[in-house]
Amino acid sequence: MATTEPRADDVRWDLSDLCADAAEARAGWAALVERSADFAARYRGKIASLDAPGMRAVLDESDELAQELSRLQVYTFLRLSMDATDVEANDLTTIGRDRGADIENDLLFLGLEWIALDDAPAEALLASEELAPYAHKLRVEREEKPYVLSEPEEQALNARGPVVSSWQSLHDRQVSTLEVPFDSGDGVRPHTVSELLSCLHRSDRDVRLGAVDALFAGLAPRADVLASCYDALVGDRLTVDRLRGFGNPMQPTNMDNELDDETVEAMLTATEESYGIGRKWFEAKARLLGLDRLALADQYAPLGEARAFSWPEAVEVVDTSFGRFAPRLAEIFRACLDAGHVDALPHSGKAPSAYCTAVSKQILPYVLMNYTDRLRDVSTLAHEFGHATHNVLALEQQTWRSHRCGIPMAEVPSTFAQSLTDDYLLENETDLGTRASLAADRVESAFASIYRQTVLARFEQRAYGVRGEGLSLGVERLSELWIEENTRYYGDSLALPEGYAIGWSYIPHFIHVRFYTYAYAFAQLVALLLYRRYREDPEAFVPKYLAMLSAGGSASPADLVAPFGLDLRSTDTWREAFAELDAMRVEAETLSAA
Ligand SMILES: [Zn+2]
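Above: the input record for the complex with zinc ion. Below: its predicted structure, written as tokens.
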């Protein structure tokens, strides 16, 4: 929905904080290549001989190089986001890819030599005051040591790269080139997978039901190839896991997320125990829509019609709801707006969706929006500024290397920020349709993050289990596992159409990053728990919460949430989150019936 007329309330990015122009960016890349080569020449082969102050100097310098790399990469990426056909931006992308690879190769030795260091000297360095700002990330890097093989073995494993990505791109192509003839309201025309999926949010039931049938009828002839891709990738990952000595197929993902197996299992178990909350909602939603029983196609059907929110109104809502929680958050929000670090409305050639990107300790983050006056866009603005405020506070206190969190913790402040805005709107909004829509949207998106992602993770666990026993992952076997795990969740509350058996087939995360999805369940549940703590005692909560944001990635998720009395390994902790979720369900039911 690109607007052609400029709107008075539009705000666009000002990229001058990043780079003056493309010429400066090119010069920046050339200079950074030299600086990195010089850095490598001075320190390669010497990490083992450094004392604590020496190691600190190396880390500080590598932190500076990483931020300069980030500045140049973000400049290129944002130019491309504004206009994918921008010739200069495309040239810069090519330069960035080539130079970026050179620079990363030059900086690689630091991590490898650090991991290679014996435990005793490494521990001595980690205990020093000089390395305190880096200690946590350095420890995390060393945890991989037992699973790293000899250099020739690692090279042989790396040589598989092109074959692995061939399976992935075969899968991607099979899904992205699929076009199914369908009439979504403007006559029969070819629809892509994502176009069909977006029909599930339409109010016309025939369109929703038809889109589901069309999607699975379209995928069915490709299911065999899609299953073969998955079978090949799972088989390959299990073989590499065995060579490296991993204990279970989830372990590498859990280690990346800095979560132990026990924590993840406690969370998934508590989630499965509470599937009933979802089923109660589906039963209520059927009544609200005047149906005997909900069909899969009705799961995201709109309840209530929300009014429009102009951009200035959205800014006001986020500013006020952040400000009454903690003035500092509203200050950061306004600072980013004033600095021209927000691009608000859709434009022709602009990248879709929304994101926030950190740049460096000196430069405020940039936020991309495609604001279209919908209630959901207000929530997206709050979400992206949950990320932005987290970035700014963490970069104030931490090194570049230590500011960044893995996805599980990174998505907590963004989800929490949405709750701040949702609650503010529920308190102040008088339009009944808007209130109903807000309450239903928030409970349904929580279900999508928590329940659906758990179903996906359990399906993956079982697929790896079956493949590990030497059985192949064909269409029939995958479909059986898929329906079993889905039925565990939906029960009788929602009718699954026959075609849904191949619902596993088009999901990219299974192919690209195994067990990727549970991180979103984690973030949503932790945000619910924190919000509960906030309501119980706002005064005690806010300073602790700001301290957690400032800590960035300088501690593990378990340590970051410990000050709130949350023990992530305990199933009881997670159960408490579901009391909160159930309250949201009841509220959505009440407001939708009003
Ligand atoms: Zn996010």
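Notes for the reader.
The pocket of zinc ion is lined by residues 383, 387, 411, 414 (CB under 6 Å).
Residues 432-468 form the longest helix (37 residues).
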